[in-house]
Structure formats: C-alpha cells, structure tokens
Amino acid sequence: MRFAQWVAIYGPTYLTGLGWTAFIALWASVGAIVWGSTLLLIRLAGGRWGARGVDAYVQLFRNTPVLLPIYLIYFAFPMIGLPWPAVVCGGLALILQNGAYVSEILRGSVNAIDRVQFDAARSLGLAPWSTFRKIVLPQVLVYSIPALGNQVVLLLKDTSLLSAISITELTMQAKLLTEQTGAAYEAFIVVALLYLVLVSSTEVLSLALLAQGAVVSLLLAAAAIVGGTALAIVLAAGAFSRLAAVRAVYRLYVYVVRGTPLLVLALLVFYALPALDLRTGPYIAGTLVLIIYTGALFAEVFRGGVLAIPRPQWESARSLGLPPLAMFRKIVAPLVTRYTLPPYINVCVMTVKASSVLSIISVWELTLAAREIIERTFAVFTILGVAAAFYFVMCFGIDRLGRRLERRLTLKGFAEART
After folding, report:
1. More confident site: 182 or 205
2. How far is residue 274's CA from residue 71's CA, in Å, rounded to a whole number?
3. 3-state DSSP call for residue 14?
4. Do 15-173 and 211-409 come out as alike in CATH topology?
5. Are 80 and 13 in contact (CB under 8 A)?
6. Higher model confidence: residue 78 or residue 125?
C-alpha cells in the first residue's frame, strides 16, 4: 500500500488521536502553569515551612519518571473511591509533574528581578499583592516565556506516554493500527510527522510574536519621530536666538546628546528617573530616550535647512513687512521642509533601527522578542533573519514614503534626484 493511500484510508483515525493529543496538551499546559504559579506563591508567602514543602514537592516530581505518577493516579485513585476517567488521570499526572518544572522556571525569573525594585515597592508602601501584580508578575512573564515554551513542548511530547493507560491519543492510535495491519513503519511515520507539525506550530506563535514586536518598534519610532520633531523645532529656534545664552544652551545640548552613545543615554535615563522619584516604566523611559536623541539630530537638520534659505528671501519678507510668525509660516517652513526632507528621512530610518537598543532596558520590541524566541528554540539564523526582514520592510517603507513626498514637494526648476 502506498503511503498516500495509507494516509487517505486511516486519516480519520489519526485525526481522532490528534484531537485527543491537542486537547490533553492544551488543558494540561494551562493547569501546569497555574499549579506552578501556585507553588511559587506558596514558596514566597508561606514562610520557611512553605518553602521547604515546595522544595520537597519539586524534588519528588523532578526526580521521578513521569510514567510513575501516571500509573499511580490511574491505578490508585479507584482504590480510594475516585474512579476518574483515564484522560483526567493522565492530564492530572502531567500537571503535577510539569507544575514542578514551571515552579522552578518562575522562581528563576523572580530571582532575576533586581532587589532594588522590591525595596522601592516597600518604600512606597505597596501591599504584597500589589507588589506581585505591578512589579513581579509583568517581569516574570517576560523573563519566563522562553523556558515556559520549552516546557510546553516537552509536555506535548509527554502526552505519548498516556498510551500506557489506553488513552487513544496519537501514539495509541499508531499502536492499534500496527496491530491491525502490521504496517508499523507507515503507522509511526505519520504519527512522527503529526507530532512535528504540533511542535512546529509553536513557530507560528514565534512569527506572531515577532510581528507584534515589530508593531511595538514601529510605534516607539513613530512616537519618537513626532516628539523629536517638536523638540527639534524649539531647539532650532534657539539656535537662531539673539540671546547668546540660548544659543549656548542649544550648542551644549546638541554636543552632549550627539556625542553620547544611545545605549549609555538609555541606561542613564532608565536608572536616573527612579532616583528622581519619577516612577515610569521602561516604555516611557525608552520613548523619552529616543525623543531626546532624535531631537538633537532633527534640530541640526532643521538648522541646516534654515541656513540654506537664500538671503534674498529674507530681504523680500522684511521689505513686505511680514511679521515673524507669517514669515515662518509662508517662507521658512515650506523651504526648510523641501531642503531637509532627505536628511529628515535618514533620521527617521535611523530611529526605527535605534529602537532595538531599548531592549537593553527591558522594552519588549522586535529585538527582545527575537532574543526570547532564540532562547526557546535555538533557531538563531531563522529568527534573526525574520527579524532583519521586519526591520528592512519598516525602513524601506519609510524610505519609499520619503521619496514620494520629496517628488511631490520638489519645486519646478529644481534638479530632482532619480533613483
């Protein structure tokens, strides 16, 4: 019998097993995460005896093969008057076993949180539950996602062991088909491929996470471009002030910001704001960093555009008696826009790429999402390639938009660059 014919004939049997496998893996994964979180809370809030009890539980289940709790629950529960279905017994065994691993994963994530944050929470008078909800939980979720992904994949593969208690999941269906037909090769090859598809389905989640990270990066860049442009207009106005002190402040700001690496600036702002009793999250701090940085770059672009305006334009405006605001609106702004659009787009593209630096201060964007997925899947070249493709699409889109605006704003008689 050909392989395609085998799949066509016994496809419904495999679909039944696939349904049971996916169902058990789904609710057991959720249960393991909930149970592991409960164990973590007992460890943190249960005092010395609570921590010792959780330690004993973790040591017991981590050092015991998963088949033993499966057999124990399946055969022992009916003896104490709990004749539960095999599916419930098998899923409960997976929850108890994997919950121990999840508890340790979450404990490692809690240990990764800087103790200064707990001290700050106590100084603010936050209750333990508020501290957990506002400080611990958000960071634990970020730190533990890669390891939790590993554990879910392991749990999915462990569902094959439930065939030992006659649950008709994928492996059990393959055994039954082998007994009926004697074609063990075909039976188990299909099962192996289906498990591979189930495990690989997590890659779809990886792609969705990368897309979500790309959206966050684009939003951060957009906020920085808008804020940096507004700041640059004010700074550029100061560059042409009649007051020497204002011009000196402008030069100092541009000199310091442009001469400081963005990473150093990000770390400085991220750690300086809490020291000033300004409790902001990493996203606000990261956006502020990009605004400060791009503001200096945009200001120099705008200053160059103003200097490029021909002197007769200024003299004509003064001879017409135009007030400063009308002069800016009718002469300066249109000409500066046309002159500075190419370098302005350069800075916009750079801002999108610079958003990756914010991953250092725990801003969850495209680069940090890629790093977390790599830690879980070890698919370095694939994930980084997809992340690079996302960055290229975003930057290329901004570049094309800038070229289109440049063509529309080009004055008649000006030489137009062709690409």
Report:
1. 182
2. 53
3. helix
4. yes
5. no
6. 78
CA 350 to chain CA centroid, nearest Å: 20
**Domain map of the chain by residue range?**
15-173, 211-409
Phi-psi region of 65 (alpha: psi -120 to 50; beta: other; left: phi over 0): beta
Burial level of 247, CB count in 10 A (0-12/13-18/19+)? Answer: middle
Among the listed residues 107, 110, 99, 90, the one whose alpha carbon sits nearest the alpha carbon of residue 35: 99
In 3D space, the residue among 110, 224, 86, 277 whose CA is nearest the CA of residue 166 turns out to be: 86
Select from 1.10.3720.10, 3.40.30.10, 3.40.50.720, 1.10.10.10 the CATH code of 211-409.
1.10.3720.10
Q: Is the CB of residue 235 less than 8 Å from the CB of residue 295?
A: yes
Could you tell me which of 179, 213, 163 has the C-alpha nearest to residue 391?
A: 213
Look up residue 369 and give its two tokens. 């999402």
Give, in words, the CATH class of 15-173. mainly alpha
CA–CA separation, 356 vs 353, rounded Å?
6
**Rounded Cα gap, residues 185 and 201, in angstroms:** 24
Q: What does the pLDDT look like over 16-61, one tens digit per residue?
A: 998 999 999 999 999 999 999 899 888 888 788 888 999 999 999 9
Q: Are 3 and 148 in contact (CB under 8 A)?
A: no
- Give Cβ neighbours of residue 62 (< 8 Å, ≥ 6 apart): 100, 101, 104
Q: pLDDT tens digits, residue range 369-414?
A: 898 888 766 778 878 888 999 999 999 999 999 999 888 876 544 4
pTM above 0.70, yes or no: no
